[in-house]
Design a protein that fits this description.
The chain is mainly alpha-helical. It has one domain. Helices cover 58% and strands 8% of the residues. It is built from 7 helices and 3 strands, in the order βββααααααα. Strands 1-2-3 form a 3-stranded antiparallel sheet, with no helix packed on it. A hairpin with a 6-residue loop joins β1 (3-5) and β2. 24% of the residues are buried.
Length: 177
């Protein structure tokens, strides 16, 4: 029987996993180890099958007019920082497309929702960090997961037994860890 633990800010469920306790964030179904392994293999196969499109998107995100200019616009206090929202949403769509039917990590989705769907207003200048930092934060988090998908899609032929941190982060994004 799972044991429910409620720290101050989060709820967890402890479930047995291969002789150890496995901590799973509420809202995700860890499943049996065989189900997780199957989901992990499917995710890796979909990443590898989408590598060309993922690489192209990652290059766009690394490019001058996105990464370099977008971050510069944040520090220059230019409304052009708001353009980062478009590429952030493109990344999220690409990540969702890798595992149709799976919800992405709720914390990640909260960061994305707080950093997208914003329109510039002159009053934003008076609260620049409060208004624009979530946009840059959402972009960086989304780009991180895209970068990890490309990196491990290129490096891994099958799911590893020992998880590199970036691969483990991707599995967490999809509720597979």
């Amino acid at each position: 029987m799972p044991e429910v633990v409620s720290p101050k800010t989060r709820s967890f469920i402890r479930t047995p996993f291969m002789g150890r306790k496995r901590v799973v964030r509420r809202g995700f179904t860890a499943g049996r180890p065989a189900d997780i392994e199957k989901g992990t293999g499917r995710l890796l196969a979909r990443i590898r099958g989408s590598l060309a499109a993922l690489r192209e998107l990652a290059e766009q995100c690394r490019g001058h007019w996105t990464y370099e200019d977008g971050v510069y616009r944040f520090y220059h206090k230019s409304c052009k920082v708001y353009y980062l929202q478009n590429v952030t949403l493109k990344i999220v769509d690409a990540l969702k497309g890798l595992a149709p039917g799976r919800e992405l990590d709720p914390d990640f989705m909260r960061i994305v929702s707080e950093g997208t769907g914003k329109s510039f207003s002159m009053s934003d200048n008076a609260q620049w960090l409060k208004k624009t930092r979530p946009i840059v934060e959402a972009y960086f988090h989304a780009f991180y997961f895209l970068d990890m998908a490309v990196r491990y899609g290129e490096r891994l032929k099958k799911p590893p037994q020992v998880l590199p941190s970036g691969w483990a982060a991707l599995l967490t994004l999809y509720g597979l860890r």
